[in-house]
Specification:
With 111 residues, the protein is an all-beta fold. Helix content is 0%, strand content 51%. The chain is built from no helices and 11 strands.
Length: 111
C-alpha cells in the first residue's frame, strides 16, 4: 500500500525557513515525477513545484527563487526547502505522486 507522509511544517516568522519532507512507502518512486501542492481551506489544491524524474524542476511563479524542491531516491523522500517565507505562504502543503496524496503538513508564517 502506497503511503505519503509529510513532515517539517510549523510556525515560523516572516523571512524564516522551513524544510518539508515527504516520505514515500509502498513502492519506489525514483522513476516518477513528484510534486508539492498547497491546500488552503475550502479551496482547490494549487501547484507549488514538481521534481521530474529526469531531473527537471518547475515552480509556481509565486515561490520561484524562494523554494527549492529536491529528492533522495535512495530514501524515497521528497523535500521542499522554503526560504524567505511570507505570510501568504501560510497553508497546508501536500506531496503528490501519481494518483497518491499525503495528508499534508501545516505551515504558518506569523510574527
Amino acid at each position: 500500500q502506497v503511503q505519503l507522509v509529510e513532515s517539517g511544517g510549523g510556525l515560523v516568522q516572516p523571512g524564516g525557513s522551513l524544510r518539508l519532507s515527504c516520505a514515500a512507502s509502498g513502492r519506489n518512486f525514483s522513476a516518477t515525477n513528484m510534486a508539492w501542492y498547497l491546500r488552503a481551506p475550502g479551496k482547490e489544491r494549487r501547484f507549488v513545484t514538481i521534481s521530474e524524474y529526469l531531473g527537471t524542476t518547475l515552480y509556481n511563479q509565486a515561490v520561484k527563487g524562494r523554494f527549492t524542491i529536491s529528492r533522495d531516491n535512495a530514501k524515497n523522500t521528497l523535500y521542499l526547502q522554503m526560504n524567505s517565507l511570507e505570510h501568504k505562504d501560510t497553508t497546508i502543503y501536500c506531496c503528490s505522486v501519481l494518483k497518491f496524496w499525503g495528508q499534508g503538513t501545516q505551515v504558518a508564517v506569523s510574527s
